[in-house]
Amino acid sequence: MANIKTSSNVSRGFNKTVIYVVCIVLALLSIMPFLIMFVNATRSTPEIQSGLSLIPSVHLSTNWDVLVGKTFSPFKGLLNSFIVSAGATLCAIYFSSLTAYGLMAYNWKMRQPFFTFIMCVMMIPAQASSIGFYQFMYKLHWTNSFLPLILPAIAAPAVVFFMRQYLLATLSMEIVEAARIDGSGEYATFNRIILPMMMPALATQAIFIFVSTWNNLFLPLILLTDKSKYTLPIMVSLLRGDAYRTEFGSIYLGLSLTVLPLFVIYFLLSRYIIAGVALGGVKE
Predict the structure, then answer these.
(1) How far is CA 186 from CA 98, 170, 172, 191, 250, in A?
(2) Burial degree of 246 (CB within 10 A; 0-12, 13-18, 19+)
(3) Would you state the pLDDT for residue 280?
(4) Helices and strands of the chain, counted as H and E runs
(5) Percent helix / strand / coil, the chain, rounded to 5
(6) End-to-end CA distance of the chain
C-alpha cells in the first residue's frame, strides 16, 4: 500500500509539474509580443530592421520627438479614444443589460420573435452597413462628431445575447417579485438589485467592448475629419504616411501608448470577474 501511495504521489506531482510548465510557456508566449513592442519603442528604425532584440535601446527620446513632432498630439488622441471607448462601453453594457432583463423578467407576446430578430441582426457584419450609416450620419451633420461612435453602442446584439444567457443562469424571479411587493419600481429594481448581480458579466463585456472600441480604426477613419478629434489608432496609422521614410520606432511607441490603457482597464475590472467566478463556485 505504501508503494502504491508513493507512486500515486509521484504521478500526481509529475502531472502538476507538466501543467505548471505548460502554463508558464503559454504565459511567456502571450507576453512576448508585448515585450517586443515595448523594446522596439526604444530602438531606432535601422536597429528594428536589423533583427529582433529583447534588450532596450537608447532611442526612446528620439522616437518620442518624432511622435510629438507630427501635426497631431498623442495626448489628445488618448483623450479622444478614452471618450469614445468609455461612452460606447457604458451605453452598451447598460442598455444591453436592460434589454436582457426585459427579455427575462417580462412575459410578453413577441418576446421570442424579438430575441430571434436580435440574433439575426448579430449575424450582419458592420462593414455591410457602413455606407448607409455614413450617409445617415452625413444627413444628421454628425460626420465630425463622437456621437455616431458612441450612441450606436446602445444596440449591441452580441452583448444582449451574453447578458441574457447570464441572467438565465443567475436571475431568480423570486427576488424581483419580493422587490415589487416591497414597493420598488421597475427601474429601481433593475439599477439597485439586478445590476449588482450582473457585475461579473458587466465587467467581462466592458473589457471586450472597451478594447474593440479603442482599437476601432474603420469607422473613426471615415467619420472624423478634424485632426483635433482623431483617435489614437488613426494617429498611429498616419505615422506610416511618409513615402520616403517610415519611423518604425515612433510607430512602436505609438502602439505602446495605445496598449497601456487597455492593461489598466483589464486590471481594474478583472477582480470583478474573479469575484464572480468565486461566488459561482460556492453557490448552492
Answers:
(1) 11, 18, 15, 9, 52
(2) middle
(3) 45
(4) 15, 0
(5) 80, 0, 20
(6) 37
Among residues 71, 230, 73, 72, the alpha carbon closest in space to that of 146 is found at 230
Q: Please, are residues 167 and 101 in contact by the beta-carbon 8 Å criterion?
A: yes
Chain segment 176-229, per-residue pLDDT in tens: 888 888 888 888 888 888 888 888 888 888 888 998 899 888 888 888 888 888
pTM: 0.80
Q: State which fold the 71-238 domain adopts.
A: MetI-like fold (1.10.3720)
Which band of pLDDT confidence, cut at 50, 70 and 90, is reported for residue 89? Answer: very high
Q: Rounded to an integer, what distance in angstroms lies between the CA atom of residue 147 and that of residue 136?
A: 13
**Domains of the chain, residue spans:** 2-60, 71-238
Report how far residue 156's alpha carbon sits from residue 152's, in angstroms, rounded to the nearest whole number: 8
